[in-house]
Amino acid sequence: MGIFKIQKKILVISNHNYFSSIWWFNNFEPRVSGCAIHIYNLLMLKNIVKIIFFNVVLIFFLILIFEFIFHQTGREFKKKYLKPYYGSNEFGRGTYPKNYFINDDILGFDIRPEVSPINFYSPNGILQIFSNEYGCFDLNTKYNNYIYLAGDSFAWGYDNYEKLFGTKLQNKLNKDVAKCGVTNTGQEHQFLKFQKFLNKNLISPKKIIVTHYKNDLSDDAKFPKDIVLNGWLVKKPKNSDEKRKLKDKIRKKEQIHKKKLNNNLIYFLKNHHFSIYLINNSFFVSALREFKSKLQNKNKINVKISKNNNSINCNYENYNKNTCINKNKDAINKFISYSKKNNIDLIFILYPPIDSLKNKNDIYMNLKRFLEKNTIRFVDLYTQILNSGIKIDKFYNRDGHFSEYGNNFLIKENINLFK
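Request: output the structure for the sequence above.
Response:
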């Protein structure tokens, strides 16, 4: 045992079946047994796992930082490149929530009065929509000295309430604005809605503002074109048999949707409020979804579908000769007659489609002549936007409706007209 007198350290490692010993001597190299190599490998593996873990955590936080910056500054990018996601809860026209609309014997449909705030999964984000006792998307409940705002989706919503044209105009003028636009409508629906409003409010407005967009022509030609089935806004069926089939189809879809929510975790997560928000606002999630969509479209076989000759396709060419224009002109004339009879100022706002601005094609030329002939003032946004020299995309949201910037521009450029 004399050999151990000069040892510095003895390490004895038990490995169940045998002992391995490592001696360090002053003048000898270390000698390691097979079991020590095994422990060394385990230690190295633990270090590798630690490195991977810390790198994953670091990447996760970097992604969070990037997503936060993108959420704050990437609005234009999302608007231009990323398609919106609504979840699977779609049974009717668009993505309007169930029971926000009701059937109307005259209008076909209308906004249900006194709807409490509910989520609307719009292309511009998750918004909250509601209505007052008049069936208007408006917080006001009494109207005395006020402006009446009529129109389709440009007047109704597709953005947060505080960003909408009617809300901003009310704040700027410090005067109540009855924000009674209804999406998916033309001037015929809008005038009848105005009459319905006056039957309840009794006091006429000091000014009427009507927003106009190109699809108002077909909306009036097909009026009433939409109804409500099972709480959902849908295209009006051609007959009672088609209505029954559509109603049954919606009911079955709702049952399947409800069953999947309860039994399929992935489906539930994809349709959860937070998930829909995340998918619409996350750069990485949206980019992956867009990449997947492009791959699917690449492999998709395009099938040409012949157009139905009976379909109504209204346009502004030959404005005075195109018969399907007549219903829209008649509805505009109703606003004109009422305003002149009651000595109320009437203003039309003509919203140009974004492609008409980029192609420098003023589709409203004939409509402008018609309004001028009837001495009706209007806001020519086409000319105002092009003359401003400002980038056209700034005026529009992701879905083609006017942005908050666009609404601010509209009010600033025409404030004297709106007063």
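The longest strand covers residues 9-14.
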